[in-house]
Every structure is written in C-alpha cells, then in structure tokens.
Design goal:
Number of strands: 12
Number of domains: 2
Bound molecules: pyridoxal-5'-phosphate
CATH class of the largest domain: Alpha Beta
Strand order of the largest sheet: 2-8-7-6-5-3-4
Structural class: alpha/beta
Distance between the termini: 44 Å
CATH superfamily of the largest domain: Type I PLP-dependent aspartate aminotransferase-like (Major domain)
CATH topology of the largest domain: Aspartate Aminotransferase, domain 2
Shape: globular
Length: 382
C-alpha cells in the first residue's frame, strides 16, 4: 500500500499557511483532534457530567498508547505529563541500599535531571554521562558510568537540544548486565518513529502527547514492564491509582495491580478526547511508515544543508538522529524571528535552530527552509 501523504497533509489545516517544522515543540493540529475537543464541549452542554464516557476515554488513551509502544494496556499509566510519570516512578524507588546510583546523561531534558536530583534527599546519587569532543555520547561513556551500584539509567532517546539519538539497545544491554533498570524518555522520538519497548527491552518509558503523538498538552504516559509493577509502590499516588477507584477507602493505600498505580487524580478528560484522536492517526499511518517518511525528509534536509554549506550539527547517521535536525547559528533568536516572519515555524535551544519533521511535512517544506536559510546565511551562519 502506498501511503497518501498528500491526503494526510490536508487534514492539518495549518500546513496550508505555514511551513510547519515544529512538531518537536508542539504538533500541527489535525482536523479530527479539533473535532474531538468540540465533541467534549458538546458533551458538556448536552449531557453535563458524562463520567462513564469520560473514564472510558482515559482507557481508550491507555489502550491506544499501548499499541503505539507495542506493549499491553496494563503496562501503561496515563499521566498528566512526562514529569508526573517520572515522579511516580522515582517515588517508588528505594535509595537506602547500596544500589542508590541514578545514571543520566548530558542530553537529558531538564525535568529528567531535576526529578532524579530531587531524589538526593532520599539517598540517590546522580551521575551524569558526558558527551565527547564531537558532541555525541558514545556507548563507552555509559559503560564507564553504569556499575553494580546503579539502580536506574534514565536516559533520553533523542536529545531536545541537538537532535542526537542515543544507542538505547546498547545502553539497555549494558545496564541489564549490571543489574540496573532503564527508563527511556522517548518524548522526542515517539510518534515520529517506531518505539517498540519490548524490542528495545527498556523497563520503563515516559513521554507526552503534544509533540509527534499529535494530541495536546496536559497528558503523558509511563510504560512499566509487567513483571516489575508488583515490586514498585509509588508514594506519589492518589485515588485513581488505587486497585478499586470507587472504594473511597480512607483507611489504606491499595495500589492497582497494573501500571495504573503510577497515576494520581481525576483524568484530564478534555485532553483524553484530543489525544485519542491524535493517537488514532499515528496508528492509522503506522509508526514504521512514519519513521521511513521522517528519515527521507531529514536526509533530504541534511543533504540540502550541505549544498548551501551550512551543515547540520545533528549526527548524520540514521541510527544517530531522529526527527530533529539542528543548525548552529549566531544570534539564533533573531534567525528564528526572521523565519517566523516568513511563516516558517521552527524553534531553538542553545545556539541551535531546530527543524523537526513529521509525516505531514513534504519536500516543499524542506525547500522553503533551505531557501530561507540561504537568504540569511551571510548574517547568521557561524
Ligand atoms: C525529551 C523530553 N522530556 C521531557 C519533556 C517534558 O515533558 P513534560 O512537560 O510533559 O513533563 C520534554 C518536553 O519538551 C521533552 O522534550
């Protein structure tokens, strides 16, 4: 079957007006996602408090997210954010013994560093794995850091600063050989490529719904490997994390036997409507197809950047990058503003201008940004 990318693109109206290369920040809005939010509004007007339907919406998100990650629904907690998932997991970790080390990397999104550092009050030791002179973090650097005292390696899949993708399978193999668990922060990857948690063999994975998963802010997920769930009791909890939500028992904490134990309070209902619609698009197109499309577009962009002699700083090899390609720029905020004036939507971190690609982008988008960069090259190229 040949995927109709043109037809798919027409479902994202903003793409008619903008060169939208910002899915790594916030996805383009699909017509069905907008409609789903309107349906929630109609529900409120027509039915009032439609709790039976609303709770099922949360379950729909759980089930769809499980399909995206190729896991089981009982292994998915639907959380308020990636941070909420990491916090719930961290709260279940015990740092009082010898295995109290947490390994993170230079590529982490701040939240994944800050939350683990917060565990220092509970006995955790946080160790950072540094990049090399080329800006990448080779597997050997992880090899030096992960040892028999390591409880968890909490690492990003794709770096939000520079687009570099880590060798997750290699890290998992190292960690497991030394008795450590791995938590993958796949926020900058999931939805833009296949993230098969079973194949990668990670123990936990977190992310959120507003980027490549096409949903909205206010919802995230935590995947926890089935066998590990019973041994983890989050102290970061709430009534929606209980085995029986409607028991209303105030005498004890009785966590759900499933990954729901990592949840907390009332589901973010309106977000569930939007996210259900977004995840359905991802599954309809298929993550393998999306990965291939994103690879094609990112390769094309990197080739064109070479041609205009403003090469990307994101590693070129397919296995070392995902949907985000960065170029270094002088006064990057000004370059970003110029592009915005030209209706080219990007973002920036450090000195890097980030262009992030999804299946709904096309060759015209690549051409538009390359032509624009060529026009600004004399002023902004380092
Ligand atoms: C890689 C990565 N991890 C975590 C986060 C933060 O997620 P949240 O705000 O849902 O906690 C982001 C947000 O951009 C991210 O890119």
């Amino acid at each position: 079957m040949i995927t109709d990318f043109k037809g798919l693109r027409s479902r994202f109206p903003v793409l008619e007006r903008k060169t939208y290369l910002n899915s790594g920040s916030y996805c383009a809005l699909a017509d069905s996602v907008k409609e789903a939010i309107n349906n929630y509004m109609d529900d409120r007007l027509l039915v009032g408090a439609n709790w039976d339907v609303w709770v099922m919406k949360n379950e729909a998100v759980r089930s769809l997210m499980a399909q995206v990650l190729r896991a089981q629904p009982d292994e998915i907690a639907v959380t308020a954010s990636a941070s909420a998932g990491i916090n719930a997991l961290a709260s279940a970790c015990n740092f009082t013994g010898k295995r109290n080390k947490v390994v993170i990397s230079d590529f982490e999104f701040p939240t994944n560093a800050q939350i683990w550092h917060a565990q220092e009050l509970r006995g955790a030791r946080v160790v950072h794995v540094h990049r090399d002179a080329n800006g990448y973090i080779p597997l050997e650097h992880f090899e030096q850091a992960i040892d028999e005292e390591t409880q968890i390696v909490a690492v990003t899949h794709v770096c939000f600063r520079n687009g570099a993708k880590l060798d997750i399978a290699g890290i998992v193999e190292l960690a497991h050989a030394r008795g450590a668990k791995v938590m993958l922060d796949c926020y900058q990857a999931v939805g833009s490529m296949t993230v098969d948690v079973k194949k990668l063999d990670v123990d936990f994975a977190v992310g959120g719904m507003l980027k490549y998963l096409l949903g909205t802010a206010g919802l995230g997920f935590l995947y926890a490997r089935q066998e590990l769930i019973p041994e983890l009791t989050p102290t970061n909890s709430g009534w929606f994390a209980q085995a029986n939500i409607t028991a209303m028992d105030i005498t004890a904490n009785r966590p759900s036997p499933t990954a729901r134990r990592f949840e907390a309070g009332t589901p973010a209902v309106v977000n569930c409507y939007a996210v259900e619609a977004g995840l359905k698009i991802i599954l309809e197109v298929g993550t393998d197809v999306i990965e291939e499309r994103v690879r094609y577009l990112t390769r094309l962009y990197m080739d064109r950047l070479q041609e205009i002699d403003w090469p990307s700083i994101t590693p070129r090899e397919d296995e070392r990058h995902g949907p985000m390609i960065c170029v270094r720029a002088n006064q990057v905020a000004q370059l970003f503003a110029r592009l915005t004036e030209q209706d080219i939507v990007t973002s920036f971190r450090d000195d890097n201008l980030r262009a992030t690609f999804h299946f709904y982008n096309n060759e015209k988008d690549v051409d538009a940004i390359v032509q624009a960069l060529l026009g600004h090259r004399a002023e902004f190229r380092p």
